[in-house]
Amino acid sequence: MPDEEGLIIGRNAVAEALKSGREIDTLFVARGERSGSIGKIIGQCRELGVPVKETDPRKLDKICSGGNHQGVAAFAAVHEYGTVEDMIKKAEEKGESPFIIVCDEIEDPHNLGAIIRTADACGAHGVIIPKRRGVSLTYAVGKVSAGAVEYVTVARVPNLASELEDLKKKGFWVYGADMGGKPWNEQDYSGSVALVIGSEGKGLSRIVKEKCDFIVSLPMKGHINSLNASVAAGILMYKVTENRHTG
């Protein structure tokens, strides 16, 4: 369940938030509810690309802790989303080759927050997340990032596979972190880099993996055959940074 910070309850409150230009992360609507202003709110959110999720009225009651939601509630994003173009421009302004982290269906806000925090620490130019699968810029993510969301551009895209194809057309090399790949420390990470981190349970999705130019793997010498997503991301981010600074 999403965290309660950033929760906007009720038709008027949500409508005013949209009117003011506040960045809305997700809209929740009670299943079958379309009366009054709800239809207009849904239409506005879809125009803005905000995910609209129909949910059982009892679940919406629980999300709103019994508050009078009138069939609708929204979660505000902890920070405004940027674009991939913003990331590339940031790299150009610094005279650096772009380095972008791509999160393939990361579901745990602690993992995404930690990835954003490490991205800031190692000088990555941005983080890409999917619009409809995986955690987004919730207040919990912002808290775990320790303020890094204020400095790291996060873009939310409708289709990760298509986005990776676009990055490749722009001259990026796409590296996916998954089992069975080339050892992480034997890869050259020079040039424009997109590093793809898979979800906690499934790793890289099939279609995203197919779009990667290289698969890189971390050695597993213990009894557990995988690392926490944000830990793996941190190790690889710093390897990419080291390679780019010394290569």
What Rg do the Cα atoms give? 19 Å
Q: Specify the overall morphology.
A: elongated
Q: Which CATH class of the largest domain is shown?
A: Alpha Beta
Strands of the largest sheet, in order across it?
Answer: 7-6-5-9-8-10
How many separate helices?
9
Strand elements, count: 10
Look at the helices and sheets and give the structural class.
Answer: alpha/beta
The end-to-end distance, rounded to whole angstroms, is 44 Å
**Helical content, roughly?**
25-40%
What quaternary form is this? single chain
Strand percent estimate: 15-25%
Q: Do you know the CATH topology of the largest domain?
A: Alpha/beta knot
The pLDDT mean sits at 88
Major β-sheet annotation: 6 strands, parallel
Corresponding CATH architecture of the largest domain: 3-Layer(aba) Sandwich
Low-confidence spans: none
CATH superfamily of the largest domain: SPOUT methyltransferase, trefoil knot domain
In N-to-C order, the SSE pattern is EHEHEHEHEHEHEHEEHEH
Total domain count: 2
